[in-house]
Amino acid sequence: MKKMSIMLSSIEDVKEFVALTNSSSLECDLVSGRYAVDAKSIMGIFSLDLSKPLTFVVHDDGAKADELLDEAAKFRA
Prior knowledge:
- The chain is α+β, with helices and mostly antiparallel strands.
- The protein has a single domain (2-75), classed as 2-Layer Sandwich (Histidine-containing Protein, Chain: A), CATH 3.30.1340.10.
- Helices cover 35% and strands 25% of the residues.
- The chain is built from three helices and four strands.
């Protein structure tokens, strides 16, 4: 499992992030406090408090996880 802190500060950021996660076959979540949602779910993401940093969790330790985190680095908090 790999993690990164991210910020999604606009609707466009959320749309771009969901498109990015949906292009991957890996399981991934977004965590805010005690709430965790599927990172591929736009409705789930909008249920979180987007004014605070979120933890992006990729449930894999391989090269594909590193690639996904590299692509998501533009959202790094």
